[in-house]
Design brief:
- With 171 residues, this protein is mostly beta strands.
- The chain contains no helices and 21 strands.
- The strands form 2 sheets. The protein has a 15-stranded parallel sheet that branches.
- It is globular and about 40 Å long.
- The two termini are 24 Å apart.
Length: 171
Amino acid sequence: TADTNKLAVQRKWTPIKTFKGSFDGQGHAISGLCTSVSNGDAAFIDTLSGGTVQNLEIKDFYAKGVTAAGIACAMTNNALIERCSTCGIVDGSARSGGLVQSAGNVTIRNSFSQSTVWIQIDQQNSTFSGGLIGAADGIVTLENCYAACGLGSIGTRGALIGFCRTKPTVK
């Protein structure tokens, strides 16, 4: 879980709006990001659309917004997250996920989250939190992934995925 003592040294981060390219962290860690958005999405990347994020650790971070996640708030269009991890605090008022808040038509492979994930407000039938993904809104493939997260007590919660519209493939 996140080291709350280290959270005091965070750096303000504005999420990358839409990312369609390839980001290779080369095994490095990004530490101490703080994204706090009162009326929007909070994560390292707002939308990962058809792009790839790989070999990256995001740790000791704080993401707070209407939707919040460690790596991306939205992940779509055959996007890939591979060999990535998060360990921080994800604080959403509607949806939140350790790696991704909302995912559809994507693959997450060899990745994990040890973040604390919670929701602030219970909005009946629309409040979801998950260790890896808050809500799977389309086809999602998880391969060799795990979550060892603390999940809050509000809304629909799941160890890997908080809510699924379609059956995910888990390998």
